[in-house]
Amino acid sequence: MKSNETDEDFLFFAEDEQASSEPELAVGVWNILIVDDDEEIHTVTKLALNDLIVLGRKLQFHHAYSGDEAIRFLHNNTNIAMVLLDVVMESDDAGLKVVQRIRDELHLEELRIVLRTGQPGYAPEESVIKEYDINDYKTKTELTRGKLVIAIIASIRSYQQIRTINQNRIGLQKIINAGANLLEQHSLHEFSEGVVTQIASLIGLHAEGVLCAQIEDDGSTSDKIYVLGAAGHYAPFIKCQLDKLDNPRIVQQINLCLSQRQNIFGQQDTVLYLGSDSHCAAVYIETNRPIEAFDRQLIEVFLSNISIGYENVTLFQQLKHAAYIDPLTKTPNRNEFIQILQDTRRFDAEGMVAVLIDIDHFSDVNDGLGQDVGNELLIALTLRLIAFFGTSCQLGRIGADVFGLVGPSHELTPERLEEVFNEPFQASEHALQVNATFGLCRLTDSAEQGLTILKHVYIALNKAKKSISQNFQFYQPEMEDEMAERLSLLRKLRSDFSRDKLELWYQPQVSLSSKQVVGMEALLRWPVADGQYISPAVFIPLAEYSGLIVEIGSWVLEQACQQIKHLATQGYDDLRIAVNVSMPQFRNHHFVQTVIDCVNRYNIDPALLELEITESVVMDEPKIVIDALQKLKNAGIKVAIDDFGIGFSSLSYLQQLPLDRIKVDRAFVREVTEPAGEVIAQTIINLGKRLGLSTIAEGVETIEQQQAVAAMGCDEVQGFLFAKPMPNNELLAFLADNNPKKVD
Fold first, then answer.
1. CA–CA gap between residue 228 and residue 222 (Å, rounded)
2. Confidence category of residue 142, pLDDT binned at 50, 70, 90
3. N or C, fewer C-beta in 10 Å, the chain?
4. Is residue 628 a part of any domain in this protein?
């Protein structure tokens, strides 16, 4: 719409009461948007107001020629102080629609609006102002330059006041939120940002500044200064070192404030000291003008009020640091690593893998060289892992000798992980060559919860530790099903054991010379529904893994001693019973005394109780086993080594063991009629004789096998050829039929 001659000249009407401009130099701008479909209105408005300075700032004009164009501009430029808006443009109410969209759609509540129209009387002035939240509504003919200047000054002052109030509210809310949530992970940063915003609001400025402090993020003395809170264009630098700002003046001013422990009020900026002697910070605010004396007093009162709050937040942050950082390696601990797993899975899972690194036989280092050397080994490994993977992966210490890594799968390959351990580690004066086992899990193969991911990696690690072919394993979903099935079986085993459902069966052992039963081996049986039994090969490893074997083992000893006593009352007072013993039982400090007490409680001959151990038990922790067996041997209890020949036992350990008997494993008995099997079986039997030990061959199922081991000089046999394992009532019947020693 083309304006008439009066409209074109309205800005140049003379008026006695011209609004005076403020004399200060411009140190910034007020952004003004002119919205009008008449090009000349834009031109004359800009010319008339070009030199106007309001509250120390010049006006910066922006232009839109339709309602839609105005909305697009405001959508991308929210820092507009006011809009000079024509009512009638592409439609008679285009300007009013723009106002409605500004408030309802863009939610620009601080922006001030002055409506102008060339059609007086179009809309009732009072209702428009009330309904649409505008500052003024004038016809173009009545807007002289003086009146327009007054409208602009009033609008900008209103804009500044509303903005200050809002900044006050936002700043205070941040401080309140931080104080109410001190244990939240980002509470210190939120509190600091609130302080910056609030101080800027107190002195009537936009929140442009930073709060910095020295942070000891590794638990040691540190001179590094970090940005804890920031507002305005400094916000992206939160949590960064101060030097990352690349602004020498800010760095200089903050260092000066922290060293002098006092406020610095300058011409361009202000640096405020916050805190106490033990917890201090510096708040840098861009002021671009000196702070007035009244504002300085207001700021000092504010700082004194929040200093205690800042100190409290800092103390809680240090507590949180202790809760999430491993004190030895200064890396994330298990709790923090779980959060890292969760965050990585949610936001960057593709191509990422989680790894657990378990140091093999780490306890040997601690036990043999001392805990200090063990700690130095862990630190050396940490430094090497950082050197290998620090730029692309995140590291944490998950357990005593277990480390975690999260990073790209092309970096965390089994081959690269193995390279970490190629060279020895320097720990004190020792160069330690250690190996490790790795569990890996692709994050896309796991869940979103960090704890679940860690569980999956542990499943892979445990699978790798049981493997004899390789020292790593990738998690597969079916592994969890297997684990769940094992746990279900273990729960049932616990339940059935507590309800006394396990049974002890006995397999007779026969002398080859007398053909009489001389003893028996006690064997666990676990009955289930429909007369079926779960194999000991399945549930014994579960019991050992869970530690339940200690309780079960005590029960077996109790039953065996009770059976020896019962057999004696039946006239079989010279039959021994052999009981298998596992490593978890030896690790129990009360094991030896428990065995001796059980023998004494039933008042049986200790020589009739024989403990069977396997080579793997001996080799696991030789010292513990040998010491325990020596004490048991001194108490008169017999000792046999089971499955001899299938492990990798050291003959030096074998010589130290207080043995009475060697059992030839069924694997060699099965092949005893073949040349290779015959040689091994003969060697074991000869070794037993040289050491002064009795020998027994297990798994004898044929006459040929019996004849072969008899010809080699074996003393006793055990196997299906003579008898299968049987419950107590069947054992008594078997003895009645085969042993003439039974008395009337």
1. 15
2. confident
3. C
4. yes
Give residue 699's pLDDT.
93
What total of structural domains would you count in the chain? Answer: 4
Q: In Å, what is the CA distance from 80 to each residue of 52, 60, 138, 166?
A: 17, 10, 21, 15
- For residue 566, give the 3-state DSSP assignment: helix
Give the model's pLDDT for residue 439: 95
Residues 382 and 464 in one domain: yes
Do 370 and 298 share a structural domain? Answer: no
* Residue 257 lies in domain: 185-324
Tell me which of 450, 475, 500 is where a domain ends. 475
CA gyration radius for the chain?
43
Mark whether 353 and 425 lie in a shared domain.
Answer: yes
Using alpha carbons, select from 670, 724, 733 the residue that is nearest to residue 523.
724
pLDDT recorded at residue 709: 94
Strand partners, 431: 426
Tell me, what DSSP letter sits at residue 670?
Answer: H
Whole-number pLDDT of residue 3? 38
Give the model confidence (pLDDT) of 555-601 as tens digits: 999 999 999 999 999 999 999 999 999 989 998 889 999 999 999 99
| 723: CATH | 3.20.20.450
| 407 plus 307 within the same structural domain | no
- Across the range 62-68, mean pLDDT stands at 93
**317 and 345 co-located in one domain:** no
Q: Is 7 domain-assigned?
A: no
Inside any domain, residue 742: no
DSSP code string of 285-343? EE-SSPPPHHHHHHHHHHHHHHHHHHHHHHHHHHHHHHHHB-TTT-SB-HHHHHHHHHH
CATH number at residue 194: 3.30.450.40
Q: Is the pLDDT of residue 182 over 60?
A: no
153 falls within a domain: yes
382 touches 329 (CB < 8 A): yes
Q: HEC profile for 512-528?
A: CCCCCEEEEEEEEEEEC
Please count the helices (runs of H) and the strands (runs of E) in the chain: 26, 27
- Based on the fold, state whether residues 393 and 515 are members of the same structural domain: no
Residue 575's pLDDT is 95
Cα–Cα distance measured from residue 723 to residue 145, given in angstroms and rounded to the nearest whole number: 119
Q: Is the pLDDT of residue 212 over 80?
A: no
| pLDDT tens-digit readout, 293-320 | 767 777 777 777 677 667 666 666 665 6
* Judgement on whether residues 362 and 230 belong to the same structural domain of the protein: no
Residue 41 belongs to domain with CATH number: 3.40.50.2300
Which parts of 140-260 are beta strand (E)? 209-214, 225-231
Among the listed residues 605, 576, 604, 582, the one whose alpha carbon sits nearest the alpha carbon of residue 509: 576
How big is the CA angle at 561 (ends 557 and 562), to the nearest 5 degrees?
A: 115
CA–CA separation, 130 vs 445, rounded Å? Answer: 59
pLDDT, averaged across the chain:
83
State the average pLDDT over residues 502-526.
95
